[in-house]
Every structure is written in structure tokens, then in C-alpha cells.
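Q: What would this chain look like folded?
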Amino acid sequence: MQLIPALDLLGHDAVRLQQGDYDRVLFRENIDTFLEHVLATDPPLVHVVDLEAARSGTVRPDMAQRVVARAGTTPIQFSGGIRSLDDAHTILNSGVSRIIMGTAVWATDNSLATFSQALGEQLVVALDVRDGTLAVRGWRHDSALTVDEALRRCVAVGVRRLHVTAIARDGMMKGPDLDLYRTVCASGIAVVAAGGVRDEDDLSALEAIGCEGAVMGMGLLARLGISVELEAPL
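A: My prediction, written as C-alpha cells:
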């Protein structure tokens, strides 16, 4: 079971948002300073989300290069604004180990197969779930695609790994949505869970369900001794 620390980028800062809301920035610090704290925990890899790119739809390879250079031998999983194969190759050529794509893989009926065939193990498909359906474009828009339909499509084209976020739990420190992860793990695809992961008990519960790893954001701040005051949920 991998504990994967999260590094979210907004502008030129490391941040933590609550429930993916750009208007609720709960934590902000220099990227290099925060990454130094993260790397000191000796993580198996670092999960990086370029929120700026996710919002604009334009990748920032310079940010990927910056994180890779600072991370040294620690692998980087990178996401945010990757909307085409050209974008994907641009970010991969920056030195990251794998990329996460959500919005683009659901754009057309053939998109998922195209990206899966072209990128193979380096592609992680994002299932960003809100009220049973997928959210896209930096979580700012809801799609009509259900979790079950998304899983069916992923199995059909041979997707190797899923990154599944329970949006309502993100940044709330209320524990992961275990029912969601049971459903997704039943697909047989490797699953990395995100959203609400707080402590060892949550990690054990996710491991028992079958997740291969879990991303920790707010919980990571607590581990690093950084105090953040949560806002009331929307």
C-alpha cells in the first residue's frame, strides 16, 4: 500500500484547496519549500496537480520540469490541463514517470482508447466523482458519465491504473468514501484513492478493499505539523 503525498500547484505556489474550490485556498507555501518537506518523508512517488493548468486547459511543462529537478530520484505523477497527445508527450518529456488525464479521455467515444493505446502504463485515468458522476475541467463542470459506465469503458480498452477522487471528501478530513472504492476496485484495475485520507486507519481500510495506494493532501499537512483551519462545507 503506497502512501502518496500530494503537491497542488496554483500560480507559483503549493496550495491546498477545500473540495477543489479555487476560492477556498486553505494553505499556501513556496513550491520548493513545501516539496522539500514532502521529500523528507521518503515517499514512493509524489502526486502533483497543476491546478492552474487544469483551470486554463494549458499545460505548464516548466512547472513539471521544476518539480522533477527538485525531486531527484523520486518519481513524479503529474496532472492538470493535459488535453491532447501532444500535451501528454510534452509533460512526459519533462521527466515525469506517469500522467493523469481526466477531461480529455472522456471527450469523445474514441478518446479513452486512443490515449490508452498511445500511452500505456504511463497513463493513469482520473475518475473525479461528485454525486455518482464524473466532474471534468478542473472539477468545475459535471458530466453525464456515471462511475459504472466509466469503469466499463476503462475495462474495455485495457486501462492499467485509475486515480479516483471522492470530491465531496477532498480537503475535509472526514475519511475516504469506502463504498466508492469498493465499487472501483471490483473492476480489477489498479486503483489509487484520493479524498479525505487522514491516517493509518484510513490507509488500512483502503488496502483491505484492494487499493494499491492513496494520495494524502490535508492529512499530509497534519503529518508535517502544519495546522490548517477547515471551512464549513458547501
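Residues 2-223 form a domain with the TIM Barrel fold (CATH 3.20.20.70).
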